[in-house]
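ARCHIVE CARD
CATEGORY: sequence design from structure
SOURCE FIELD: tokenized fold
FIELD CONTENT:
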């Protein structure tokens, strides 16, 4: 594995960890409009996307998406989102 790939993997792990913290802190909120928000950013689940600059730049799971996945994991209707495609 080359250095760049290794660093990107570490960054992604850090995002995952940050997402777990956001979830534990209760930052994931179900809005009255039916959208899920994390720290004010709207996160869509089908397909998975987020409004934050990190996601827009990279088109890969950001910490908000990981927080929502952790949130959905605790709910039965979120099981289809926890497949390997969205995990590290
Ligand atoms: Zn985001």
């Amino acid at each position: 594995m080359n250095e760049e790939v290794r660093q990107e993997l570490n960054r992604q792990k850090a995002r995952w960890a940050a997402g777990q913290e956001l979830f534990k802190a209760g930052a994931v909120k179900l809005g009255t409009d039916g959208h899920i928000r994390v720290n004010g950013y709207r996160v869509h689940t089908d397909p998975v996307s987020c409004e934050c600059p990190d996601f827009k730049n990279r088109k890969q799971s950001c910490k908000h998406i990981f927080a929502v996945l952790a949130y959905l994991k605790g709910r039965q209707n979120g099981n289809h989102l926890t497949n390997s495609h969205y995990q590290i």
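CARD ANNOTATION: Residues 3-86 form one domain. Confidence is low (pLDDT under 50) at residues 82-88.
SHELF: design records, drawer C
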